[in-house]
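Checklist before submission:
- one chain only
- standard amino acids only
- sequence pasted in full

Submission:
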Amino acid sequence: MAAPNADELKSLRENFQKKNQTCFILGASGETGKELLAEILRQQLFSRVTLIGRRKLELEGQQYANVSQEVVDFEKLDESAGAFQGHDVGFCCLGTTRAKAGAAGFVRVDRDYIEHSAKLAKAGGCHHFVLQSTKGANISSSFLYLKVKGEAEARVEAVGFDRCSIFRPAVLLCDRQESRPGEWVTRKVLGVVAHISPTAMSVPTVTVARAMVNNVVMPRKDGQMVEILENAAIHALGQPK
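Returned file contents:
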């Protein structure tokens, strides 16, 4: 489905707001998750937003009036099944790195936690699950990162949501709070490349977040329960409108 123009998107947003839907966000403390929360609140699409995570975030101001937080232990997620109850849409930006969590920890967070959360969300009434994956995700890949991301996609698809939107952004451009020198250099180089070929190798986190929110207000294509948005489609859908 082609990205809607500004007038079409305005109409879609207005119609969506009338549905009085609720959502949750997994991974709201991450770079994309923070942008996603800001975009959701800016558009005022949901009557209630729940942040599900390992710790509470410091949120101050009237803009967070309809935001609640649920602290969960992902190793004992069934004990927090109630946190996933009663949401129409679920956004998942959950993830870690092999460097931070080790190989086993990375698999546990980026695949197992996501799969378990998706199952609880489905049981709790969620009908549209939006997953942030990565460019090149492939269950058959010889690279652990891409293989695990592909496995997470497959397991979320198998849950059987009415609609499942999988986003595969390329390298994310953002100002990380935790940044290593190599990452800083890479982002600077990709920033230059982005001026030449915007959709080739990278995408700003704010663009990903805006595309995820815009995707939600668009109707599902007939018969398409699972949709995969590659980097170029994310750029197209995530432009300011």
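Reviewer check: The beta strands are 22-26, 48-53, 67-71, 89-92, 128-132, 163-167, 171-173, 202-204, 226-229.
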